[in-house]
Design goal:
Layout: H1 7-22, H2 31-60, E1 65-68, H3 78-85, H4 88-97, H5 102-107, H6 118-132, E2 137-140, E3 150-154, E4 157-161, H7 166-169, E5 174-175, E6 181-185, E7 188-194, E8 197-203, E9 206-210, E10 213-214
Parallel strand pairs: 1-2
Antiparallel strand pairs: 3-4, 5-10, 6-9, 7-8
Helix pairs in contact: 1-2, 1-4
Length: about 220
């Protein structure tokens, strides 16, 4: 269990998130708002643990692992984080005092559409094993806007609908504007030497600012 974390501190953290991001009190909040406030409070705990861990890695000049994969099928995060941190019972008690069941809050979280099968699940299991053994590791994948698809059966036939998962799971993502890069599509590229340096000049291309996001494991 996290040191010095109490029921009162957890409740205060959730109330603070409700006030800051929704401008409401706990008495006015619905299940989705409580879910998001709960996630943000847990994310703060994870961010602090990540900061302390990164400081140790830097201090000891440890080697770091970067796992590149097109997808990581991580599954729902809230229950996993509460269990791994040893604070699930604490959150259950606090939410019960606020009039909510933790199991209902779990149900508010969509399954992140960051993978669609064995490759993504294997990659996530590998990440879980590495982080459980305190390796300094980052997984790098594509942030898909949509998951595989949602299935509906209409008149006996399958109908595929977009899996818009980001509307409910975006609160786990931490934008890294400091790591944003420009990605160019189309157009042409030419080389030009200036003052002894090679420069690549792009012409008639479309530019997109790509912002990476962190998701804690």
């Amino acid at each position: 269990m996290e040191n010095n974390l109490t029921n009162a501190a957890v409740r205060g953290a959730i109330q603070a998130k409700l006030s800051r991001y929704f401008g409401i009190s706990e008495q006015e909040a619905d299940s989705d708002q409580i879910y998001r406030a709960t996630v943000l409070s847990v994310r703060d705990i994870l961010a602090e643990k990540s900061r302390r861990f990164s400081e140790k890695v830097t201090e000891k000049r440890q080697k770091q692992i970067y796992y590149m994969c097109m997808e990581f099928l991580v599954g729902r995060s809230l229950k996993q984080h509460l269990c791994n941190l040893g604070i699930e019972q604490m959150y259950r008690e606090v939410l019960s005092e606020m009039g909510f069941r933790l199991e209902d809050i779990y149900d508010c979280e969509p399954d992140p559409g960051l993978g669609n099968g064995g490759l993504g699940r294997l990659a996530s299991c590998f990440m879980d094993a590495l982080t459980s053994q305190s390796y300094a590791v980052r997984g790098n994948c594509i942030l898909y806007e949509y998951g595989l698809f949602k299935q509906r059966i209409v008149d006996g036939e399958q109908l595929e609908l977009p899996d818009i998962w980001l509307t409910g799971a975006d609160c786990w993502l931490v934008p890294r504007q400091d790591r944003a890069v420009t990605v160019r599509f189309g157009g042409t590229a030419r080389e030009e030497w200036r003052d002894g340096h090679l420069e690549i000049i792009y012409e008639n291309c479309d530019e997109v600012e790509a912002v990476p996001f962190d998701m804690f494991v």
